[in-house]
Write a structure and sequence with these properties.
Blueprint: H1 2-8, E1 12-15, H2 25-52, H3 59-85, E2 92-94, H4 95-128, H5 133-136, H6 139-165, E3 172-175, H7 182-188, H8 194-228, H9 232-261, H10 269-293, H11 296-311
Parallel strand pairs: 1-3
Antiparallel strand pairs: 1-2
Helix pairs in contact: 2-3, 2-10, 3-4, 3-10, 4-6, 4-8, 4-9, 6-8, 8-9, 9-10
Length: 312
Amino acid sequence: MQLSQRNNSEVIFTLLGFSEYPELQIPLFLIFLAIYSITVIGNIGMVQIIRINPKLHTPMYFFLSHLSFVDFCYSSTIAPKMIVNLYAKDRSISFSGCMAQYFFFCAFVITETFLLAAMSYDRLVAICHPLLYTAIMSQKLCTALVVGSYAWGEACSLIFTCSALQLSFPDFSTIDHFFCEFSSLLSLSCSDTAVHKLLLFTLATFNTVSTLFIILLSYLFILVTILKMRSASGRRKAFSTCASHLTAITIFFGTILFLYCVPNSKNSRHTVKVASVFYTVVIPMLNPLIYSLRNKDVRDTLKKILAVKIFS
């Protein structure tokens, strides 16, 4: 065990990324830099907007502020290194750097899945039990759901990272991806990976199925409640309340399920990379846009902030 750890400390990985397309390096660099810049401004801006506007101090926006923070964090774990590697000749990353990148990325992605499930429950209570909404979605419950999401995300990430630390690797290995992803590490390992693959499959399936079950069940009850409404304006308002969240979860889980369906072969690596770019870089940019463009209070607060900055 000590020998394996000592050898791994000297391991150097090379992130292949998109280096097989040299003619696209500069366009991709500019595109990803623009996307990441919008991600940082959009998500940090959303957190600040929610903080300074008392109208947004509600359970829904409490969850949204943490969703924005998590989007910023997991995008920042991947995007800067990916952007640098598009123009740098040296695309190497140390074993410890690789493990650290994987730990934080995994923790924040799993946290996001459970935050989205918690937000589904929030929408369920808001539409199905509007008179009891304040009593049910208390500050104590909201805090517990958020803390639980972070705790479970970190626990799962710690399990995966400890599993990866048990593996041994050649001194120099090439990862055919733009970040340190667990299945890519398994394919490079010199160790027996059967138990590690089983662990990955079990926890990943549990997290995906459990959160999807909560989300689908919540929206089933929401749909039944909306269909029972006699007022057309009430139905439109209820659908509008859920539209932003429904869009966000469709994009996020749709991408994850697509990755589940892609066969693990050399021919599918390009497809996996493109899909991974979508959920590591593009989705964190889209979420603040989805929630801000459809919300009048967020737009009004943003206009006030911009007005103060311009005329001050």
